[in-house]
Amino acid sequence: MRVPLVGGAYQSRSLNMNAQRCVNLFPEVDKTSRHVIGLYGTPGKVLRLTLPTSPVRALFTGETYLYAIGGNTAYYIDTNWSATSMGTLNTSTGVVSIDQNLTQLVLVDGTNGYTSTLPTGAVTQIADADFTQTPSRVTVFDGYAIVDNVGTEKFYISAINDATSWDALDFASESGKPDDILSLIADHRELILLGAQTSGIWENSGNSDFPISRKTFLEQGCAAKHAVCKADGGVFFIGSSDRGDSIVYRLVGYNLERISTHAIENAISGYSTISDATAWAHEEEGHTFIVFTFPTGNATWVYDIAASAAAGQPMWHERAYMNQATSALGRDLASCHAFFNRFHVVGDYNSGKIYTLDLDTYTDNAEYIKRLRSFGTSVDNRVYEVSMTDPVKCVLLGGDLKTTKGVDRNFHHRLQVLMETGVGLVSGQGSDPQVTLRYSNDNGHTWSNELWGSAGLYTGGGGNLGEYQKRVIFRRLGTVKAEFE
User: Fold this and answer.
1) DSSP symbols for 18-71
2) Alpha-carbon span 257 to 273, nearest angstrom
């Protein structure tokens, strides 16, 4: 009997309904059948440099350089991964928002605003007395640097292509409903102002007094100011309104599409704070991933646009860093992203380390990645969990389970896990990679001890590193009480 070894994450409020996890694996979906045909390992991380100050608060790609904020210091980074200081900010923690106009880099840190003359000018605080007091987000729209003012409905615009020059009268309010502006982003030459409960979409009308005017109004706000990003023709954010929060939306044009599942919404609702969430997007071989990290929840959830379209339903997976001492899983290391010199570059939320993502790297900066998939069997309350931590290629292709039915119990004789292997290490950890299996007889509430099976990459006596398909077989897996007698 085929079992759903390959699939996305869907862990329901009741594990008895659904207990699927998909950690550090992402689904590949056949467009014709709309079935998941395999799980690939998520990218590993390669260390490129460590900034002298930490943590990494922002990354931004310019025409020539990569720009990074580490602690209270701004840096430009060249293609040899050499970082040079550009000056300091007045804060050392929290997300920094960055954009650029024709000649300037523009930064805000929740307290002050800063500019740098491109490409490598010193970062200096905006000194104009008319500049707003507490900007937390910046976007450049038709040459205007636009910022919010935390705790108000107001947004402010700079002189065109000059973020050092501001006029106290160049502001407007998103007053469709009296809720504060939480975030803002320019997309498709429109300005999207996301409030706590509602949002407005504005355009450049060319008015000589104030060039930005409202175009339409949305009855949906956002829950986390820094968890707003754009990709694949849309804007993604965590919703919030007077009806509730925790639904993830994609805004295309003026239409809102719910992309989260009940399982994802259950997870988000369970975090005590979601206002500190962040989001960024990256593309890998046709997959566009929207990465949401919840620092308080210590979790990272990823929406796969391409897989969702192919499957006809939202496809999500988890990304997690494994504590090397305890094996506990927590949020992914990456706090921010930029695409620079054809590399996906990410910054470490807990240090000054800057990595590149690589699908052919099987560690997080030489530390083990745990890849895990749990799934039910549909014949009884048995849930299986398959995992691997060795630093080797991990592609799961399917599973087969042999059971027989007794009077009131099901006998689980054999589970076969089909994998693509053949890429490992010639010695040490990873030369004989192990697949770990646990099972639960109560839908994932409690678990058995671990069972171990070889993925078949032995290297002794010449080895068989070219064994590109392997069936890992687990036998004598006990009995489970039948659901219905």
Assistant:
1) -EEEEESEEEEE-TTT--EEEEEEPPEEEEEEE-SS--EEEEEE-SS-EEEEET
2) 24
Give residue 260's identity as a one-letter amino acid code.
Answer: S
Read off the pLDDT of residues 341-365 as tens digits, 9 standing for 90 and up: 999 999 999 999 999 999 999 999 9
Structure tokens at 421: 């292997």
> pTM, whole model, 2 decimals?
0.95
pLDDT tens readout for residues 388-424: 998 888 899 999 999 999 888 999 999 999 988 655 5
For residue 303, what are its two tokens? 């929406």
Q: How many residues does the chain have?
A: 485
DSSP string, 432-476: S-EEEEEEESSTTSS----EEEE-S---GGG--TT--EEEEEEE-
Nearest one of 154, 164, 104 to 134, comparing CA atoms: 154
In the block, which residue shows the tokens 């210091």? 73
Residue type, 343: F
Whether the upstream peptide bond of residue 211 has omega within 30° of 0, thus cis, is no
CA–CA gap between residue 281 and residue 288 (Å, rounded): 7
Q: Is the pLDDT of residue 449 over 60?
A: yes
Distance of alpha carbon 378 from alpha carbon 3, whole angstroms: 8
Average pLDDT for 152-172 = 97
Using CB atoms within 10 A of its CB, is residue 345 exposed (0-12), middle (13-18) or buried (19+)?
buried
Helix and strand numbers (H, E) in the chain are: 2, 46
Q: Positive or negative, the Cα torsion across 246, 250, 253, 256?
A: negative
Q: How many CA atoms lie within 13 A of 450 on its CB side?
A: 8
Tell me the two tokens of residue 53. 């100050």
> Rounded CA gap, 22 and 316, in Å?
8
Neighbours of 162 (CB within 10 A): 17
219 alpha-carbon distance from chain centroid: 26
Q: How far is Cα 246 from Cα 261, in angstroms, rounded to an integer?
A: 10
| Cα–Cα dist 26/317, whole Å | 6
If you compute the radius of gyration of the chain from its CA atoms, what whole number of angstroms results? Answer: 25
Alpha carbon distance 15, 350 (integer Å): 33
Per-residue pLDDT of 324-347, as tens digits, reads: 999 999 999 999 999 999 999 999
Cα distance between residue 456 and residue 421, in whole Å: 8
